[in-house]
Predict the 3D structure of the following.
Amino acid sequence: MIDFDKSGGLVPAIAQDADTGEVLMMAWMNREAFEETLRSGKACYFSRSRNRLWRKGEESGHVQEVREVLVDCDADTVLLKVRQIGGAACHEGYKSCFFRKIEGEALRVIGERVFDPKQVYGK
């Protein structure tokens, strides 16, 4: 179903708000994360920095309920249409990880924080 071998075992997974169409985040999935996502109905990714499965919301409680799973024409990218629980997909507290816009040679924050990451993650 998914060609995990093409790119060394990981494929990009894009999470999109099922109601608004807003792109919330991009992460990676291995076969195990993909299968768990299908089985559980909640987004599960592979964390390259932790080298393990990452169940979205395991620390923050901001889980992604999967409404629909789509696969691109090359079978090497996954699109998850999700319901974002808690209002924010980004670990920095924004609804979307794409909260900055390039303007000239600078980045400008265009999103509003939904939560304070220091309070949610205790850092």
Remarks:
- The CA atoms of residues 28 and 49 lie 11 Å apart.
- The beta strands are 11-17, 23-29, 44-47, 52-55, 64-71, 78-84, 100-103, 106-109.
